[in-house]
Amino acid sequence: MNKDTESWARVDAKSVASGSQAQAENVLKMALQDIASLASALKISQQESVRIGRNRDMWKGQCERQAVQLSKLGRRK
Q1: 14: three-class secondary structure by DSSP
Q2: Most exposed of 6, 8, 58, 60 (fewest Cβ within 10 Å)?
Q3: What burial letters (b/e) apply to 41-71, b meaning 16+ CB within 10 Å?
Q4: Which domain does 68 fall in, by range?
């Protein structure tokens, strides 16, 4: 990332706009790069969240099946 969240919060749009065209272009390029970087990180996080949810559901189902099997074994005695 070019700037952290706090740094971007301090960027004054009017100052950038009233500065040189090169300065405005540079700030815009940095902002676009950071947006792309954040979008990529968000996509990865969302995919990881889905994967973790599937794993949780798989383990929950496995535990439920094992609990049923254990209760059946307990009744056999």
Answers
A1: helix
A2: 6
A3: eeeeeeeeeeeeeeeeeeeeeeeeeeeeeee
A4: 5-76
What are the tokens at 60? 């929950």
Amino acid (1-letter code) at residue 63: C
- Which H/E stretch holds residue 74? helix 21-76
> How many domains does the chain contain in total?
1
pLDDT digits (tens, 9 = 90+) for 5-16: 999 999 999 999
Q: Rounded distance, CA 49 to CA 45, Å?
A: 6
pTM: 0.71
What is the number of residues in the chain?
A: 77
Q: How far is residue 54 from each of residues 4, 47, 58, 64, measured CA to CA in Å? A: 32, 11, 6, 15
Distance of alpha carbon 77 from alpha carbon 69, whole angstroms: 13
